[in-house]
UniProtKB/TrEMBL annotation:
Annotated keywords: Disulfide bond, Endonuclease, Hydrolase, Lyase, Nuclease, Signal
Family: Belongs to the RNase T2 family.
The species this protein was found in: Quercus lobata
InterPro entries found in the cross-reference section: Ribonuclease_T2_eukaryotic, RNase_T2-like, RNase_T2-like_sf, RNase_T2_His_AS_1, RNase_T2_His_AS_2
Pfam families tied to this protein: Ribonuclease_T2
Upper taxonomic lineage: Eukaryota, Viridiplantae, Streptophyta, Embryophyta, Tracheophyta
Active-site residue list: 61, 115, 119
Record-given protein name: Uncharacterized protein
Amino acid sequence: MELKWSILIKLLIVQYLSVLCVSQDFDFFYFVQQWPGAYCDTKHTCCYPKTGKPAADFGIHGLWPNYKDGSYPSNCDPDSVFDKSQLSEIMSSMQKDWPSLSCPSSNGYRFWSHEWEKHGTCSESELDQREYFEAALKLKEKVNLLQILKKAEIVPDDGFYSLDSVVEAIKEAVGFTPGIECNKDSTGHSQIYQIFLCVDTSGSEIIECPVLPKGRCASNVQFAKF
């Protein structure tokens, strides 16, 4: 009898912890867009999707739940697997705005599955799978980074621009300070790679970032051609 009670208590603890993990709260989202020219202009290789070379535009990397202290939850619900049928009505938008550049060339499912299972499952208290991907697409539509930068005469021509001018152009257009993450090309140039904006827990409204990511950018950054 004592052994049965011990097993029952352990099962209840496991169940409690799994529920706690699934319903884990978060403070805000990072909405992350990446520049394909920088992704492909490194020591690493890139592969275009099976649908062909993406447009020369920022693509979605992800919508990531985050905490105000800079940490983040991940892989919150192992039972909630990626279901591509949830994306059937938005597939064309996913292929256009959320392309995968990793090798080997793919249809994007592996990339989207990773984003849902690592990040999306931690926002299930707010967004189901379909709503999660739709929220990111709507944010991309709301914030056209390429047009914002072009308006400020910051264009992807392999030229160099001050990091401050990039930040200010986006802040002026969006109303909030972005986070800029840079990478380095094979010659060591610091390039605009990813741009972070913060979004409320509903996944719809851009807010001021409680904490900005460390971007490792030089004072002057290259905007690579694509």
